[in-house]
What does this fold into?
Amino acid sequence: MMVSAKSALRTAAATLAVFTVWGGQQTSAAAEPAIDFNRDIRPILSNNCFQCHGPDSAEREADLRLDSFAGATSDLGGYAGVAPGDPDASELLRRVTSTDPGDVMPPPKSKKPRLSEVQTAMLRRWIESGAPYVGHWAFAPLSKAEPPQTEEPWVRNGIDHFILAQLQAKGIPPSPEAGREVLLRRVCLDLTGLPPGSEQRERFLADERPDAWERLVEELLRSPHYGERWGRHWLDQARYADSDGYAIDGERQMWPYRDWVIRALNEDMPFDRFTIEQLAGDLLPQPTRGQLAATAFQRNTLINEEGGSDPEQFRVEAVVDRTNTTGAVWLGLTLGCAQCHTHKFDPVTQREYYEFFAFFNNSTDRNNRGATLSVRQGDLLGEARDEPAVEQEAPGQQGRKANPLRGAVPLMIMQELEKPRETFLLTRGDFTRPDRELGPLRPGVPSAVPPALPESEAPATRLDLARWLVDPENPLTPRVTVNRVWMRFFGRGLVETEEDLGTQSSYPSHPELLDWLSGQFIAGGWSMKSLHRLIVNSATYRQSSLVRPDLNEIDPRNVLLARQARLRVEGEIARDAALLSSGLLSPEIGGPSVRPPQPDGVYAFTQRAKNWKADTGPDRYRRGLYTFFYRSAPYPLFTTFDAPDFQTVCTRRARSNTPLQALTMANDPAFMECAQALAGRMAESSAALPEQVRFGFVATQGRAPGAREAELLIRYAEEQAESFGAEPEAGMALLDEKLRASELAPERAAALVCVARALFNTDSFITRE
It folds into this structure.
């Protein structure tokens, strides 16, 4: 189609006037890169147009569909939304540039801002080039990209090739490697969730072998604490809690599932098997006890035991939760948006939602608790996990019933009904309004996500679904999983919207790297430890995190990764670090949840009083992973540090920085006990105050203090000791029994407690550099 003279003039004007920002660098329009539909155009259409002109036919306005080429170019009665090659004949461009409030799109009532000049110029260039549409990048097969080659000595593995290529394209040098003390603390926190102990620190700093770093990484990957650290990440996604939720919020015994997760990660269970056992372990031939226990992943749903509640309503809500959780965890899609109507942005119809729902609609949920497995403490951490859990059954009946087993604890697990339930599309998501005219639905998966399920006369099962999710031809599961792992190590995923890889997702900052890592993940047998090893051994990971003024204009958000990120640790890890630094940490792995001390009055506003008698002995000082978690009143220290309530799936925690966090670090009973214990260790380390201060600093910060830091802390301790000498009662109030019984003067002991509290409250203590 010929471009009009008017169009040519308008394009020329736009070319002269428009400046675009790409990758954080401003360039004139004349030097702009070629238009990429997924990168440049789809975000504009998805964010501004698809809600009214997208996949949902029931809510589509003006018969205009803009999420496909056929829809965008269809004849609307003498005009089209998009006229390829002719921007001036395109209704889309006319509307987005209109100044008439009754004509402009998006309409004022949508509360969306007008498109910017950069966006409208981008649309014009796209239409001029023929308005090419391509499928959404996340649904496309993994590319076969190979790392760009370079001779730079900075590069350590394939990751660095990809990162350096983009940095060099922008003229940005990478940051130098961080110091050894920083690197040691970083990788210890990332792989085990614990800072290095004094012996580990001294050993690493003294190791001058060229492969000292790699040896350290292997040591940490072998640590039983690795499973605890990465288990915490997974339990967030599993919405793990120790109570039922809702008003009654009764206690439940789910900790055996937590044990299973820890052991699976420590043993580096391949992620495809890790997936299959959690979604369908009960449907495997002659499932083991561990495989049945793994299915508790899908039993972490809420249970309503209030009088007068409708059991069917809350059974359906549990199935909805399982459906939405599976979509979020493995596919990175907001499937729940299609519960009441066809998805307004992603190619998921309401029918497809309930076909996915059908996979989970056949489980037994008697009184909401369904099938259970009897488990003793240690069973799922030891050999008993691999024992058979069912008797030999007829073909097709495997996993249908669990044997009574020996042993503290009924773990809720998944179990299929002998006769499957019928699944109907629920009109507007209302469980009382099944669409019987449409008829029962067979289990199925979204057609937009490859591959298709194998055809079969028998309805597909959860086992079929699990195998589909980890089929090497399914591009979403590896992309989603790798992206979240990357996020744990760098603070931001290669796709920033890690919770949503649908059409409203961010475009990957390094798309070739994402696909290369995904391919490596699959080729490496879905090994999580291999993926982690690859990342932490890269030069990209080992960079300094110091802020660089030269990046403020070019890449202020560090998208191109010219340096590492400083990340505030979660509440559990902050407490774990304090326990380790103070010598209080109990290293026991697994077992029932525990109750450390917490402030009084936490349950004053709950509808039902909770049982919280603080543990004594080693259980009082277990890792935060094991702290009992009530959904209606979570452990306050953790919520202060942004822990979710696990009513629903959480794939990424928020990170805030508030005064309440500082107050908690200083005054929470758990941290006060740690400060008292650390003060005792400081006192035992030396009789001299400078050495005492140095001991406390190294224990909490992982490095020796600088001269100025040491001077400030010594002066602070002396001032506090003088103050407590004048007010001995105030000093005695800070001491525990051990400090009171020590030979150290009370005012000196209280001053050391204050120093310990100050060290715990530093930014560097609760931040991973």
